[in-house]
Every structure is written in C-alpha cells, then in structure tokens.
C-alpha cells in the first residue's frame, strides 16, 4: 500500500456492557437448584456450563441474579409468572438505547470522528425490536443529522455485526467521503427459557448482553492503530438451514443450536476461505466470532492456529460470552489492544462470523499501526 493513498478502515471501536455480571459458576449452581426435580437435566446443565469456555457474562436483567426460588426465568421451582415476550421487549426497549449510546460515543471518541462527519448509521440487533426503532432513537439522542442514511439490520443473528462491516466497506468504496457508524446491541439473556430441555439449557450457558460500535471510513497516511478492510465474502452453507433456528415464542425467542455446527464449519469453510484469499498466504490474524468454544476449536485445528492467534476470541468468550452480532467488534478491540501493546507492525488477517442459515461472513483485515505526521516527517528526513 502506498502510504499516501487513503484506505478504508475501521477507524474507531467502542464497547459497552450492562451493570449486572453473571458469574458462570454461581449461575450454574442456581440453575441446577431450579432443576432439582429433574436431576438428569441438572447434571447436564452443570457439565455444559463448565465446558463452554465462559467464566462470566453480563445481563441487563437483575432478576437473573436472584435465587432460584425467586427468579422468574427459573420457573421450574418459582411460583412467579414467567416474563412474556411483550414484557421482555419492554425491557429491551428500555435497556438497549443507553447501551448503544455508550458504545457509539466511545467509537466516535476512539476514532476522533465528529458527529457531523457521519453520513450513514447501521444498527444491528436480533434480540429485540420496537418502532420507531433503535436507528431513529440513536439519531435523536446522539445528535446525528436527521438526513443521515439509516440502515437497520434486524433479526439476522450472530453474523450480522460483520455483515454491517462488509456493507460499510462497500458504501465507503463507492463514496470515499462517507463515514459509517455501526451500532450493535444484543440483550441475549432476555431470552433465557424456563425449560429443562437441553436445547434451552445449552443456549442459556454462554449467551450474554453487550453493545459494540465502530466507525468505517477512509483515512489518509496519518492515523491511529486501525484495521484496514479488504475483500469480503458471504456464503449460505448448504444442508444447514435447520442447524440454527431462532423463532419468536410466547416467552421470548426460542433458539435451537445444533451440535453439528462446528463440523459443518469444518466441512465447508476452508473452501470459502481459499476463495477469499485467492491463493495468498494463510493470514496471521484470526478474528473469529466465538459463537461457541467448538467453533474456535475447529478453526484452530484446521489451520494450525496458535494460542496467541485464538486468544482474542477465547478471551471475549470467557469474559463476556457470546453477545451475538456485537461480539465480533469486542474481538477486534481485544486484538487491537494486544497488537498495540506488543508494538506490532502491519499484519494481515481475516475476520469470520457465523449465523442462522448457516451463514458465514468473512472479510480480509490488515492491522496498520499508528502513523503520525511526525513519523512521516522523520521517515522522509532519514531517507
């Protein structure tokens, strides 16, 4: 890359989580108490909670920290009514906006981007809806121009955050002066089900709440540490439509995740990665959406990745759980911090995320360390 050429990049990233922290061991114990009359389910829940790679998550719902006897989401032994879908959507409407505002403001500050520079707003969520939506509300409360181009991506699942990044790159590619603000908000814990079924318990074991935001735009030779965005690729995997199902029920959204998902990723994704890198070298950076521990394990085995290469994804899974679409920006933020701390030079990589369909979104990324006018001047002097 010629240093004087503008590049399309993620210019700034912001993340936010709710105030309430779910300790994995404590949550597992309380859930096991709620399943005391179904010992097989209790034992299975304890095992999956321990093995899923999560130590803590965050929730917008303080009721999930109550004792098993008092928690409305653990209705197996509680006499209190289970929250309806309408009640859960009221909570989503109340809690999603401040979380999204927090992440958006951090991204703007991190990228040193003014509100007046934002031309497009992409909002992403699959865990709740209301109208006027999150996009319109953020325009008003952030103070964005009322003419900003709003693009809501709703109910697309875990891959939608990276889909928004890919779409933003395409927007800026056709309009280099555009600046796209992406805001992802997911309140996954609102959909914990009062069930002893393994599918419901599996979903309850590793999903968390969080919001992330980023700015995508063109930048010149002077910049902070950024991820340049390259070619992207989207694929709907064959024979996979029933492996991840997300439907609206009377008591929140009902999620089904097949145990075959890591195997299907291992079967179909290598060909798609080869298509994207087009004969190039294996990437050094791997920003993998931690949709589950098995997904990271599968890609690690296929590509012979080191602990260092998968550490950002595993750290996010361990400390926050799977926050659906918001998670991939947490991974990129963690990765950028590690690269900055180590004093890394320019490094090529790949980011991948998976969602219902099964869908895979992927994009080439390149970490570019901070470059200032002074750095450029000194380089020219030494030449």
Automatic annotation (TrEMBL):
It holds the Pfam family Chal_sti_synt_N. Residues 235-365 form the Chalcone/stilbene synthase C-terminal domain. It comes from the Bacteria. InterPro entries: Chalcone/stilbene_synt_C (IPR012328), Chalcone/stilbene_synt_N (IPR001099), Polyketide_synthase_type-III (IPR011141), Thiolase-like (IPR016039). Residues 9-218 form the Chalcone/stilbene synthase N-terminal domain. Signal peptide: none annotated. Keywords: Transferase. The keyword Methyltransferase does not apply. Belongs to the thiolase-like superfamily. Chalcone/stilbene synthases family. This is Type III polyketide synthase. It comes from Paenibacillus phytorum. The lineage of its organism: Bacteria, Bacillati, Bacillota, Bacilli, Bacillales.
């Amino acid at each position: 890359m010629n240093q004087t050429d503008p590049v399309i990049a993620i210019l700034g990233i912001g993340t936010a989580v709710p105030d309430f922290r779910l300790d994995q061991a404590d949550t597992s114990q309380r859930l096991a108490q709620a399943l005391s009359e179904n010992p097989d389910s209790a034992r299975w829940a304890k095992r999956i909670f321990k093995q899923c790679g999560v130590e803590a998550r965050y929730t917008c719902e303080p009721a999930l920290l109550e004792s098993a006897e008092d928690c409305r989401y653990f209705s197996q032994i509680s006499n209190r009514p289970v929250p309806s879908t309408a009640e859960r959507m009221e909570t989503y409407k109340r809690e999603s906006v401040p979380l999204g505002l927090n992440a958006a403001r951090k991204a703007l500050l991190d990228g040193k981007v003014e509100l007046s520079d934002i031309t497009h707003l992409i909002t992403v969520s699959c865990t709740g809806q209301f109208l006027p939506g999150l996009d319109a509300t953020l325009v008003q409360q952030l103070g964005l121009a009322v003419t900003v181009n709003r693009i809501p991506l709703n109910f697309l699942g875990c891959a939608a955050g990276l889909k928004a990044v890919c779409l933003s790159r395409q927007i800026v590619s056709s309009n280099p002066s555009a600046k796209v603000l992406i805001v992802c908000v997911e309140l996954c814990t609102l959909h914990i089900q009062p069930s002893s079924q393994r599918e419901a318990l599996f979903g309850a074991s590793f999903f968390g709440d969080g919001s992330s935001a980023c700015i995508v735009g063109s930048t010149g030779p002077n910049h902070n540490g950024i991820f340049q965005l390259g070619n992207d690729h989207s694929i709907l995997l064959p024979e996979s439509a029933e492996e991840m199902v997300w439907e609206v029920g009377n008591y929140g959204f009902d999620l089904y995740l097949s145990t075959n998902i890591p195997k299907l990723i291992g079967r179909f994704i290598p060909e798609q990665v080869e298509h994207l890198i087009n004969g190039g070298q294996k990437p050094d950076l791997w920003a993998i959406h931690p949709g589950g521990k098995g997904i990271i394990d599968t890609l690690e085995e296929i590509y012979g990745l080191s602990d260092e290469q998968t550490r950002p994804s595993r750290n996010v899974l361990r400390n926050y759980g799977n926050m659906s679409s918001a998670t991939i920006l947490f991974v990129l933020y963690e990765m950028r911090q590690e690269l900055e701390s180590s004093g890394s030079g320019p490094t090529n990589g790949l980011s991948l995320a998976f969602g219902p369909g099964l869908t895979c979104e992927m994009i080439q990324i390149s970490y570019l360390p901070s470059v200032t006018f002074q750095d450029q001047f000194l380089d020219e002097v030494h030449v």
